[in-house]
Predict the 3D structure of the following.
Amino acid sequence: MSTTPPDDAGPSPTTWHEAHESPDFVELRRRLRTFVFPTTGLFLAWYLLYVVLADYAHGLMSVRVLGNINLGLLLGLLQFVTTFLITVLYIRFANRRLDPLAEAVRERVEGGRG
Amino acid sequence: MTNPTATGPLLAQTAGGSPYLNMGIFGIFVLITMIAVFRASRNTRTAADYYAAGRAFSGSQNGVAISGDYLSAASFLGIAGAIAVHGYDGFLYSIGFLVAWLVALLLVAELLRNTGRYTMADVLSFRMRQRPVRVAASISTLSVSFFYLLAQMAGAGGLIALLLGIQDRVGQSVVIAVVGALMILYVLIGGMRGTTWVQIIKAVLLIAGAGVMTLWVLAMYGMNLSSLLGAAVDASGTEEILNPGLQYGMSELTRLDFLSLAIALVLGTAGLPHILMRFYTVPNSKEARRSVQWAIWLIGLFYLFTLVLGYGAAAIVGRDTILDAPGGVNSAAPLLAAELGGPLLLGFIAAVAFATILAVVAGLTITASASFAHDIYANVIKRGKLDDKQQEVRVARITAVVVGVVSILGGIAANGQNVAFLVALAFAVAASANLPTILYSLFWKRFSTTGALWSMYGGLGITVTLIIFSPAVSGSETAMFPGADFAWFPLSNPGIVSIPLSFLLGYLGTVLSKDRPDEAKFREMEVRALSGAGAEKATEH
């Protein structure tokens, strides 16, 4: 089966339609969207806040915090930390909460192909 | 060891004193990668092999290759140099380049891998009218790849002057042609699999080299970042190097320009066709996810290194020495290497810099050739009725040669011109023409063919127009044509205008036109994208 290109003898429109309406798929889409949309909004807002501060609030960003390390550098490094953190959180979320559902939907569609 | 207070001419001598060593180390790199490419070529027969490396790379391998593709000479030499000279403002670039990967991770990589086969157009045209959308996506892919390619090749001239001591234009042109010819050879022989190995080898060398230098610099200051920063301040004679604003704080306009650049950087990455194409080289979406995970760790780590290298160069080499050197800002990292490890480390870093150009250009060339052969030739000209897949791969190879030759000629012509804006342009087009269209097609049910065409042609047209009439091209001292003045758009980075407009155009094109989306196709696409059902499998050899 793996040698058959899916476009040639793929599942029928009915199969896709049924999969699309299945509770597994509806739940999969809900979980994906409720994670990725707010997270994207959050990290973009945090990034923009940082850029605007670095761009317009030079005085504040130049305040020394630790030796020669100023607030600007700390916030910049914090961008690295949050990027790494979101990556780890998403990977864990996807492995645990998305993959099992995706597999169920996939089996439903591909199994129906016979 | 060179004298720390070396000035311009002495540096040229340093760099020129060991050009054979630099070339020798680069030769070893070429030899090793050639062996890898030849080995890879044994398994390159089908279209899936040529375009997508048989989808057989693991997520971690692909993640390393993505960092190899992404960390261009501009981000290696350019960012380290920008930090050394402009201080904090140089650091701002790297943050945009890194955070951008979250867009790819959360919204694009997996869904794209599940829905498409070889190109970005596969996904964009999935539920639309095939031919117009494919043509638009392909034009956008070719434009972004070409702008990026030209920027890389034009930068090669300065690098040659710096690292091989070749100052005359003819000599530089010969080296550009040799690098370009090598790249064409890699792409022709190894296809995507060979190109991927070149990127993996390059990424490992680059990150390892930068890592060693970072530890070295930190060790000189007792592993204390604060002491290093203090030394950078002492050497530069100004505390401002630690504070934002040195480069972009001049006026309200430069600040707005920077904001515009920052937006294009964060939204552009997930729309770069050569990055998107890399997601097809893994067997499934889970591996695509792991690719991005690895890429984020490696790219993040690398940018942390460049922070230390940049301030290290400011402290150890000194700002004035860097600015006086051939290659200017770009010479910071190589000069630091020479200070630390003498000619051998300089040779290594020089070879890595050339390898960087080679690998990035190869990735761009294979992307452009795949888009032309798969989207335009096979699906538009032959209307998807090509019996012989070999014919499509043959067209892709011919296209690769054409793209390679054009980029060599373009690189020679643009050598010495100020074309730094081309990278910003590539990111702005990717963020304007590609990203809105990708996101709308994946997530918005109503999105229609007209909407896709409006956002792609609109995004491309607006971005290119604004750049042409910007201070980057005319009307300023640093412009491409400093003598002319036909600029009316005040910003060098059009993203802040072009990106929202493109999103708006995609929306308006959809709601104003009469064409209805194919709902059955949308359901199929959504199920495919989220579950991976029916996705292309890895080929077996």
